[in-house]
Design a protein that fits this description.
- The chain is mainly α.
- The protein has one domain.
- The protein is built from 6 helices and no strands.
- The longest helix has 33 residues.
- The protein is elongated, with a radius of gyration of 18 Å.
- 34% of the residues are buried.
């Protein structure tokens, strides 16, 4: 199996990585601003609390705790997240590719799998956002909070593992040739 971004020429990987990383960090900063009106007693973590609500009762309580302005911020943020997904997926997957190249075969193989896992995380994020958008638009079917919870949990797990592995790849001494 090959890394999903192995087709990117080696000379272009660093510039593409830093470009995607810059966009990811910039969008993350925008999300911090958008999250402020969503932080309430019912949703102390803002949108992340909503993603992990898990039950219809909890999700409804969170939506009810937001003002109309807060709900508009949530809707806008969920839409903007569809731009964030390819940004963070490309940045982290490229980071994994670059870090994996610094070490031996076993490390590189794990990096390949995690490179694909990052794109799976983005797909889970897209499904999660769809479920949250359905809730915000008034479709109060009981399946949406549970679907969002499981997708968000998988997304966060895959991204955390990917980030930790990429950091380890950069912090561990480079293999000697």
């Amino acid at each position: 199996m090959r890394h999903p971004l192995e087709f990117v020429p080696a000379k272009n990987r660093n510039p593409l990585f830093f470009g995607c990383l810059g966009l990811t960090v910039g969008l993350f900063a925008v999300f911090q601003v958008l999250n402020v009106p969503l932080q309430t007693a019912a949703a102390p973590g803002g949108i992340v609390s909503f993603e992990l609500a898990g039950s219809l009762e909890t999700a409804i309580a969170m939506i009810a705790s937001w003002t109309e302005r807060g709900s508009a911020f949530a809707l806008f943020g969920l839409g903007l997240d569809y731009l964030f997904m390819p940004s963070y997926a490309l940045a982290l997957s490229l980071g994994l590719l670059l870090a994996s190249g610094r070490h031996g075969t076993v490390f590189a193989r794990v990096g390949i799998w995690l490179g694909w896992g990052v794109f799976l995380a983005a797909l889970l994020d897209a499904v999660e956002n769809f479920a949250l958008l359905r809730l915000l638009l008034g479709d109060l079917a009981g399946v949406w909070p549970s679907l969002a919870f499981w997708c968000a949990s998988g997304k966060f797990a895959l991204l955390l593992i990917g980030v930790l592995f990429a950091l380890a790849g950069w912090l561990l001494p480079k293999r000697s040739n």
